[in-house]
């Protein structure tokens, strides 16, 4: 039995037990707020807010019920248990521009897949493989390039999995080969790193930028790009090159090519011409126009959400209709509801003093006041990594842990902008268990990866992220600030 099959069975049995236990624990939080006396140092509102926070975290971590359900119930409980005075206050997070901004970007991402622009990129890689003695490097470059217009790392992974399969057949190295194992490491671990380079690059970046806007300072699309593209590209390159060398896959390819007069099998050696149809040209032009507006808007004060709204509106026009009503149900509504509910909880925690209480409680356990500046930063980043391991998506982990870490950073004089960007880099690069990142879980399920492969390479990318953070914090970010 393969590691992948064993792991899936283990997950099924574990998830059933975890979900039952999580529902029981979440109910305990509600009963504590409704029936238990208010502890010393608490107010009734603070007790209710912390109870709902615990209720939501347990259900989000366990996925005992769909995100939409747990998030909606959390908002209702926030009002019903007296955490806030009005239902409008309980649902205030859904008025955040982040919810609508991410919705628009998800629709734009779907439009790229709808017209098969992603498959066009993939076919270009497959068609030029005869000229590439380093097909894995070509794969990494195409994924990095596509990330600038296609935010979802999962969508990119899904697009390129069939390409990797065909490349394995072309080079006749087999589907359990070192080449394919390395390719799936790139799709799972390296691919998501690219999404952090732009503010509009994916859920992790969008959530972090919104929290920076709310908690730290205003940051434009161009400022984000200047701060993040060089560190992300360095991190991505280090991870990609290491993945190439991890199993000696290039040697396997060279050996396979040396055993044949032609490296190709079948009749797929020809190039694929970029003959774009009408819809592909429209989507491509709209995406380039959006990027142009984001750049211009950074200098004239145009809100980042406006170009995305204009792009979606244009693609939905009657004469174009690339985005239709059928695309709306396909959006990841679960993560949108989690974001809205979490921002409502953060507002309530701020207003009731619950967030300050949590920070003080942690400070009483960890003697931050006696630590040096760098020791404080190291502990905060380690805390982010520890919490991240329990989440199935980096976006959810950042949404929950970053506000608390930023509060600590402010209390101890840490540069909160640098801290937020560092948390993003490290959390976005850390995958120890297959379920920690959706693209890794997909690669683990479809490819020849083992638990050990995932954990070891996830640790490697985390270490690289630490080195990149040290470089950016001490050299690059001060230079451009």
From TrEMBL:
The upper taxonomy is: Archaea, Methanobacteriati, Methanobacteriota, Stenosarchaea group, Halobacteria
Primary location: membrane
User: TM spans, by residue?
Assistant: 17-35, 67-84, 90-108, 139-163, 183-207, 219-239, 331-348, 355-371, 377-405, 417-435, 455-477
The record ties this protein, via InterPro entries, to: SLC13A/DASS (IPR001898)
Q: Which GO terms describe its molecular function?
A: transmembrane transporter activity
What keywords sit in the KW lines?
Membrane, Transmembrane, Transmembrane helix
Q: Which PANTHER family match?
A: SOLUTE CARRIER FAMILY 13 MEMBER
Organism superkingdom: Archaea
Write the protein's name: Sodium-dependent transporter
State the annotated membrane topology for this chain. Multi-pass membrane protein
Pfam (any one): Na_sulph_symp
Q: Name one GO cellular component term.
A: plasma membrane
Protein location:
Membrane
């Amino acid at each position: 039995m393969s590691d992948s099959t064993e792991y899936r069975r283990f997950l099924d049995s574990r998830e059933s037990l975890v979900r039952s236990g999580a529902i029981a624990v979440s109910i305990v939080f509600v009963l504590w707020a409704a029936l238990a006396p208010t502890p010393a140092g608490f107010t009734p509102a603070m007790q209710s807010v912390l109870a709902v926070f615990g209720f939501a975290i347990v259900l989000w971590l366990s996925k005992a019920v769909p995100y939409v359900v747990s998030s909606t119930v959390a908002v209702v409980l926030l009002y019903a248990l007296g955490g806030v005075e009005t239902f409008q206050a309980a649902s205030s997070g859904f008025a955040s521009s982040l919810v609508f901004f991410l919705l628009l970007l998800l629709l734009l991402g779907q439009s790229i897949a709808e017209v098969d622009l992603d498959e066009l990129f993939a076919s270009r890689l497959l068609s030029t493989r005869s000229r590439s003695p380093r097909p894995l490097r070509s794969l990494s470059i195409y994924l990095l390039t596509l990330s600038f217009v296609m935010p979802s790392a999962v969508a990119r992974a899904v697009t390129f999995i069939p390409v990797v399969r065909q490349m394995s057949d072309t080079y006749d190295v087999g589907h359990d080969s070192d080449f394919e194992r390395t390719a799936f490491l790139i799709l799972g671990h390296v691919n998501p790193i690219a999404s952090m380079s732009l503010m509009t690059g994916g859920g992790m970046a969008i959530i972090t930028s919104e929290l920076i806007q709310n908690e730290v300072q205003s940051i434009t699309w161009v400022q984000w790009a200047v701060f993040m593209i060089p560190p992300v590209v360095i991190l991505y390159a280090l991870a990609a090159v290491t993945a190439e060398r991890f199993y000696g896959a290039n040697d396997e390819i060279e050996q396979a090519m040396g055993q044949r007069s032609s490296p190709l099998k079948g009749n797929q050696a020809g190039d694929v011409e970029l003959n774009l149809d009408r819809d592909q040209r429209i989507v491509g032009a709209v995406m380039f126009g959006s990027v142009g507006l984001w750049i211009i808007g950074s200098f004239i004060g145009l809100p980042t959400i406006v170009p995305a709204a204009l792009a979606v509106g244009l693609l939905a026009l009657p004469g174009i209709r690339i985005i239709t009503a059928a695309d709306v149900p396909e959006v990841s509504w679960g993560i949108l509801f989690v974001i809205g509910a979490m921002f409502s909880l953060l507002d309530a925690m701020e207003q009731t003093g619950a967030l300050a209480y949590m920070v003080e409680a942690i400070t009483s356990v960890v003697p931050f006041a006696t630590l040096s500046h760098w020791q404080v930063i190291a502990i905060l980043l380690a805390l982010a990594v520890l919490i991240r391991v329990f989440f199935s998506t980096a976006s959810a982990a950042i949404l929950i842990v970053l506000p608390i870490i930023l509060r600590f950073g402010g209390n101890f004089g840490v540069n909160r902008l640098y801290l937020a960007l560092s948390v993003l880099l490290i959390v976005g690069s850390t995958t120890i268990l297959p379920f920690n990142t959706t693209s890794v879980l997909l690669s683990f399920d479809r490819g020849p990866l083992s638990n050990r492969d995932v954990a070891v390479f996830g640790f490697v990318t985390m270490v690289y992220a630490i080195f990149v953070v040290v470089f950016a914090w001490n050299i690059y970010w001060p230079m451009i600030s």
